[in-house]
Amino acid sequence: MTTLTAERPPLSAGAQMFANRLRKNLKELTRWAKREQIDCYRLYDADMPEYAVAIDLYHNEHRWVYVQEYEAPKTVAEARAQERLREVMSAIPQVLEVDGDHLFLKVRRRQKGSAQYEKQDAQAQFQIVPEGGSRFYVNFHDYLDTGLFLDHRITRSLAGQWARNQDFLNLFAYTGSATVYAARYGATSTTTVDMSNTYLNWAQRNMALNGFTGGNHRYVQADCVEWLEREARLRNAQQYGVIFLDPPTFSTSKRMESTFDVQRDHVTLIRHACQLLTDDGVLIFSNNFRKFRLDQEALAGLVMEDMTQATIPHDFARNPKIHHCWKMSLA
């Protein structure tokens, strides 16, 4: 984690060019966010390829700026990449009017296994931010991601709306934000499954923050692939009206007996999940693998609707491959 001081030296020509783009985005997206009552959104996402960063804004009583530098290709010299990053980080405080205590930098490299979710720091400092009428804990210090995937804002809302008066299952649940939406919209019960005890505790804290602490909200620490397979084999397994299935692209850990690859394993995963659906239930399947191809032939017999375009928020429109999403049900 990198926190910068609030020094405001004159901007270089490159930094000024970047600042101009940032101002343009800020003007347009601030109006949109105010109109849509959105407090956390992506301001910039490598709009200028030479400045390959993503910039997210989070607002509570303060503005928090979360910068992720994309790993430069091998064709770009390290010194040049560092110079461009310095230009980015010098422009941000001036344009966004934040000091170093509210500005954070992470480097997003190609992740292997569970590296995306591993701790990078141990400050355990959380902020509470609003989204969609609920509140969520985010952490700008300790992990590569903050605990709230902003590109799934619409997906979470749809999952919540469909979960009204239904039993809701959240798999690969991360910090349980979709579970919070389901509870807020009136799910009969929620089951939140994740292999990480850290994220399950985070999910429980998010639920408690919004007043959802009853016995109808269950948390299961388990390898989701193995848990689904076991549940699907049970004769009297619980059935769910809505299942939210958002697996990682690739995963491996000491707790797993084998690796998980979303392209290789998605058919089996979806088939097992559908065995837990009620007759009129809905499965929301999404992932962030840019080259993902759904094997529709192997999934014949399911009703499938591609919801990708409908679930890409306006602030991610410049990056339409940020995720894939389908709504599925039994034929």
How do the strands of the widest beta sheet line up side by side? 9-8-7-10-13-15-14
What is the overall shape?
A: globular
Helix/strand order, N-terminal first: HEEEHEEEHEHEHEHEEEHEEHE
Coarse structural class: alpha/beta
Largest sheet: 7 strands, mixed
- How many domains make up the coordinates? 2
| Gap from first CA to last CA | 48 Å
CATH fold field value of the largest domain: Rossmann fold
Question: In a nutshell, what does this entry contain?
Answer:
The chain is α/β, with parallel strands linked by helices and 331 residues long.
Question: What topology does this entry show?
Answer:
Elements: H1 13-36, E1 40-45, E2 53-59, E3 63-70, H2 78-96, E4 103-108, E5 127-131, E6 134-138, H3 153-162, E7 167-171, H4 177-184, E8 189-194, H5 197-209, E9 217-221, H6 224-233, E10 240-245, E11 250-251, E12 260-261, H7 262-274, E13 277-287, E14 302-306, H8 308-311, E15 324-330
Parallel strand pairs: 3-4, 7-8, 7-10, 8-9, 10-13
Antiparallel strand pairs: 1-2, 2-3, 5-6, 11-12, 13-15, 14-15
